[in-house]
Design brief:
Layout lengths: L10 H4 L14 H14 L1 H18 L1 H24 L1 H9 L1 H19 L2 H21 L4 H11 L6 H8 L6 H13 L1
Helix pairs in contact: 2-7, 2-8, 3-4, 3-7, 4-5, 4-6, 4-7, 5-6, 6-7
Length: 188
């Protein structure tokens, strides 16, 4: 299947008034995770633009350290994903506690970068964009168009770069389960 880039969402859709933001239900982790995954898929191009701007600023100020930091994070991420596919205990951890898995990747990256170079580059160039994405995805309420686009991604009608990343983190459910859930919601 061909990879499709999600469209850039309008600023007033990406960051509307406060009426479209709400704190997630911390007691229902599944619902919160669903909101985060849905928003990551729907606004992925907007998130990429914000992250690219921050990475560009930090990269302009400290290009070598930014290159080292980015390389370390990518290699650690790929290493964790590879290990989780080969070790059952890591696979279960990744599936049940995706946030813990991402925090482990970030902490491992932090320690390697502190050994190799500038920690502030890691904090502002890599961690800050990820934190901003997570906060926005956690607080932004979904709309009908968001849900429809995510169902298309989930049942395999299209595949985006964020979809591949979420698949690597095992945050995408099986296509059949998503299709069944979608059909049951349509019937209601």
């Amino acid at each position: 299947m061909e990879v499709q880039v999600a469209p850039l969402r309008a600023w007033d859709d990406f960051f509307p008034g406060s009426d479209r933001f709400a704190l997630p239900d911390y007691k229902d982790i599944s619902k919160w995770n669903n909101r985060v995954v849905s928003n990551l898929l729907y606004y992925q191009t907007n998130y990429l633009m914000v992250a690219a701007a921050l990475v560009s600023i930090v990269g302009f100020l400290s290009p070598l350290n930014m290159l080292i930091g980015g390389t370390v994070v990518v290699l650690v991420f790929l290493g964790f994903v590879w290990m989780s596919h080969n070790k059952d205990i890591l696979r279960k951890l990744k599936k049940q506690y995706p946030t813990t898995f991402v925090v482990a990747i970030m902490l491992s990256s932090y320690f390697l970068i502190s050994y190799l170079g500038d920690v502030m580059v890691f904090m502002f160039g890599i961690t800050l964009p990820l934190l901003l994405m997570f906060v926005h995805a956690s607080l932004r309420l979904r709309n009908i168009q968001n849900k429809l686009q995510n169902k298309m991604e989930g049942i395999g009608l299209k595949k985006t770069p964020m979809g591949f990343i979420l698949d690597a983190l095992e945050q995408q459910e099986d296509s059949i389960n998503k299709l069944a859930d979608y059909i049951s919601k349509v019937k209601e």
